[in-house]
TrEMBL record:
Catalytic reaction equation(s): ATP + protein L-histidine = ADP + protein N-phospho-L-histidine
UniProt keywords, alphabetically: Kinase, Membrane, Phosphoprotein, Transferase, Transmembrane, Transmembrane helix, Two-component regulatory system
SMART domains: HATPase_c, HisKA
Protein name (database record): histidine kinase
A Gene Ontology cellular-component term: plasma membrane
Length: 423
């Protein structure tokens, strides 16, 4: 239990840290991307404003007469476009006519892009949009003119590469930080759960000590009551005393079983044994009960299934599940027990007909002292003996956990319940 609590603490803590890290990384990446794109659009806007001014018109490179249907002379030497000279290598534009025909392509002659590359990029941009991103690497801005539309483009690959590099750097730094935090949480978890571990250990020790101490007075009471019964003959009051002593002995035995199971797997002698024989032995003892209660009892226990664990504990597990099934099955109902093997897993299932268990009760069915049907509680006057103490299934769950398995309940909530233990 303490180990599971510690693992849950580590898992929850690391999930919270991981989620916070991912959120911060996402915010930083989105902020940097949006901020970088906004700067790019602002650069395009300023460049477009300067290009539209009479003194800042970008010189045209040589254009092909067969492409645009008109000839144009090669421009004379002119100074670089206004603005940052380095940005001029990354900015280019395409001018479209009213019918969408290409009128001109403007770009720096020393840039890495050719005119054909620019036209391919322009085909992916929508002139109807005011601005946008093409191919993840090119920002564009649309401007309406008297002759048509001009699309201004900015090569965004430098900023995109920087943002991606920053993302990888933050990711690497974050993962390294999470790893060191994991080591710190791993160390601190021992210290944080130590008070809980000490409390549970004291609780288990108290239950064990109290149970042992109660056995002596109960033995004396039982012996004295039997002596009085022999002297006085049949007496209902002595009968009630003996009955309650038997109940207390059962409760003490169950509490001791829980204390033993809580000590962990090391408290059980783990050996290889015949699981089929152990389950059959426990199941056969219920045949007389099925006959007396006129219930249908089915057993499907193939031979030759072996298991690593404590044979006595597994017998107790099968007995608890069958006792619970007979106790809560309906009148003249059906109880069935089956054992199967698939790979390294052994599955023990016990099914009974009856009113079933609701979905809400299934969440608590393996908790200690939990009873799904309060009306079946034992009465102090000796009536209502069909009930238990709410410890049987808790002991069963502890046995399964001590063997590294899992136990579950499935019920339609109306007519049938199945409890399955996988070892």
């Amino acid at each position: 239990m303490i180990r599971r609590l510690r693992y849950k603490f580590i898992a929850v803590t690391m999930l919270c840290i991981g989620a916070l890290f991912l959120l911060i990384l996402l915010v930083i990446n989105v902020f940097m991307t949006v901020s970088s794109q906004n700067r790019g659009y602002e650069m395009l806007r300023r460049f477009a404003d300067e290009m539209e001014s009479p003194e800042g018109r970008m010189p045209l490179e040589r254009e092909r007469p067969d492409r645009y249907g008109r000839g144009q002379e090669e421009p004379a030497d002119t100074p670089p476009p206004p603005g940052n000279y380095q940005d001029a290598f990354r900015i280019f534009s395409i001018e479209y006519g009213p019918d969408g025909e290409i009128l001109s392509v403007n770009y720096n002659h020393d840039s890495d892009l050719s005119e054909d590359d620019i036209l391919l990029i322009g085909e992916k941009a929508d002139p109807q949009e005011e601005r946008g991103l093409v191919g993840g690497h090119y920002l564009f801005l649309s401007r309406e003119t008297d002759s048509g539309t001009i699309l201004f483009f900015l090569d965004y690959s430098v900023e995109h590469s920087m943002i991606f590099s920053l993302f990888l750097l933050c990711l690497a730094a974050g993962l390294a930080g999470i790893f060191f935090l994991f080591l710190a949480v791993l160390f601190l978890s021992r210290w944080m759960i130590r008070p809980v571990a000490d409390t549970l250990e004291k609780q288990k020790q108290f239950i064990a000590d109290a149970s042992h101490e109660l056995k002596t007075p109960l033995t004396i009471i039982s012996a004295n009551a039997e002596v009085l019964s022999c002297s006085l003959g049949e007496n209902k009051w002595l009968g009630h005393i003996l009955e309650q002593v038997a109940r207390m002995n059962t409760l003490i035995r169950e509490l001791l079983d829980l204390a033993r199971m809580d000590s962990g797997p090391k408290s059980l002698p783990m050996t290889t044994f015949d699981l089929s024989r152990a389950v059959s032995s426990a199941a056969l003892s219920f045949e007389s009960l099925a006959y007396e209660s006129q219930k249908t009892y089915r057993m499907d226990i193939p031979e030759g299934i072996f298991c690593q664990g404590d044979e006595a504990a597994i017998r107790q597990l099968a007995t608890i599940l069958l006792d619970n099934a007979f106790k809560y099955s309906d009148e003249r109902g059906t109880v069935s027990v089956s054992l199967s093997k698939k790979g390294e897993k052994r599955t023990l299932s016990v099914t009974n007909t009856g009113k079933g268990i609701s979905a809400e009760e299934q969440k608590h069915i393996f908790e200690r002292f939990y009873r799904s049907d309060a009306s079946r509680s034992r009465q102090p006057d000796g009536g209502g003996q069909s009930g238990g103490y709410g410890l049987g299934l808790a002991i069963a769950a502890s046995i399964v956990a001590a063997h590294g398995g899992r136990i579950s309940v499935r019920s339609d909530g109306q007519s049938q319940t199945t409890i399955t233990a996988v070892l």
